[in-house]
Amino acid sequence: MKKTNSINFSEKIPEISKQIEEIKITCFYMLSTDLYKIENNKLTEIITKKFKNHPATIMELIGTEDNQLFSKKHEPWKIPKELQHLKSKVDEKTNYYLDLYFTKLENAKQNCLYSSKSNPFVKFVFAPLIELSLEDELHFFFVTLTIFQNGSIIIELFEDLRSSFYAVNFFSSYTTMKAKMFPDFKKKNKSYSLNSSQQLDDILNYIKKELSSINGGIQLSERFFFLHFITNMSVMNKMGFFKKDKLYTWMINAPYSIQSLSSKEKSKYYLTNYFDLDSINYINKGANYIIWNDDNSNDFESNFLQQAGLFLASATPFFQLVCLDETIMDGLEKFKLSNDKQLIKFNEWIHNYKRSSLFIYRVNHRTVFDLFTHLQQNSYFKHDEYIEKIKQEEFALLKDRNQFNDLQKNKMMEIILFLVGSVSVLEVVDIFTDDIKILSISAMITILLSTGILIYRNHK
């Protein structure tokens, strides 16, 4: 009987999950140990040149050091003839999301950081993938690319899951799709393809491939983070089932087994404890975060901006620092720093990267700093003493190797100078005599002395 109830219960999960109003942002942070060779201004210039006039780019945003925001919209993509009757609806919703996800969200983040200098950035918003459900609802998937002044490269995927279903284990969401408009980034005519076999991964892989071609080709490491912003907790808390088993925590504890859907059978890794600030709450499990607020308001837009503005203001510099540390650990054997000058330049790059996050310490909004500190102290990516020791040993070995190589070069130079000096002695002797025997004896003595000294020096 228990098994039957479990199966019936599992069948209800997709419909129940649809009642959650959620915006999901997946952040892909990319960095390379090769980027120290490129000035940050030059890196921004290279990426801007690649995407500023790219057919897929439909919006640009520029954030300045003093938290000013400048935006520019480009011409939208053309709708297939079969779906022309949806053009006005597509245009309306596209503009709505461009305004909400990007203009308003960036302003919300800047409002949290208004008292400090920020880390300047350039963001490119690409033509969205659009799905049409059986109920003629439009689902938008926006992909963006951001380059920060400190060298961080970030791809973000924005998904509005308010009308989506979660599978039984809450591991992934889906829609009942009947048509799809795909923006093929390789095309130049800015027209959507109807029901293309290509997927969101094809868009993401295309952008990553373009980034990897920078400076003749670089190997980018990647760290990704999932952010779930739930905007209707006041409604969800009224559901007895939701309140009892804390349905929202299933997103962070997934995947679930169909045989043990109840939280009564939770493992020691099951997380429900959360960190609460003045405005928001969040649960963290590795790279997966759920964020919500206790506001009783059902205003979707206001709730989302409040949560995402505050959380991203603190989390963005934290995610950048995580990506830096992980990239250094991944790239220890790839540094190829052949001299002290390169090593110094590399360490300067790391220092300047970390220094760019100092603005978080100077904000008036105390909650922003508290969240940033809490994220650092409770990170699943936190390096222990052993890892830090290995990293420092690696840098010490690089320095020792470079010093040894320099010493070998100096020895070789001394040998060359010594031989040149020996030849000069023979030239002086040649001035005073033409006697072949004397010259031969002098040459022999010089060679023997040179050889003896070289053997002695090498032995030392």
SSE blueprint:
Layout: H1 2-17, E1 22-31, H2 40-51, E2 57-63, E3 69-73, H3 87-112, E4 121-126, E5 129-133, E6 138-148, E7 153-160, E8 165-166, E9 173-174, E10 177-182, E11 193-194, H4 200-212, E12 221-230, H5 233-236, H6 240-245, H7 250-253, E13 275-276, E14 281-285, E15 288-292, H8 300-330, H9 340-355, H10 366-377, H11 385-432, H12 436-459
Parallel strand pairs: 12-15
Antiparallel strand pairs: 1-7, 1-12, 2-3, 2-4, 4-6, 5-6, 5-10, 6-7, 8-9, 10-11, 13-14, 14-15
Helix pairs in contact: 3-8, 8-10, 11-12
Average residue pLDDT: 82
What is the strand content?
Answer: 15-25%
Give the helix tally.
12
Shape: globular
Q: From N to C, what is the helix and strand string?
A: HEHEEHEEEEEEEEHEHHHEEEHHHHH
Q: Give the domain tally.
A: 2
Biggest β-sheet strands, sense, barrel: 13 strands, mixed
What integer value in Å does the Rg equal? 31 Å
Unreliable spans: none
Which percent bin holds the helix content?
40-55%
- Output the structural class: alpha+beta
Count the beta strands.
15
Query: Termini distance?
Result: 86 Å
Explain this structure to me?
This protein has 460 residues and is α+β, with helices and mostly antiparallel strands. The chain folds into two domains: 2-377, no CATH class; 385-459. It has twelve helices and 15 strands. Strands 1, 2, 3, 4, 5, 6, 7, 10, 11, 12, 13, 14 and 15 form a 13-stranded mixed sheet that branches. Helix 3 (87-112) packs across helix 8 (300-330), helix 8 packs across helix 10 and helix 11 packs antiparallel against helix 12. The N and C termini lie far apart (86 Å). The mean pLDDT is 82.
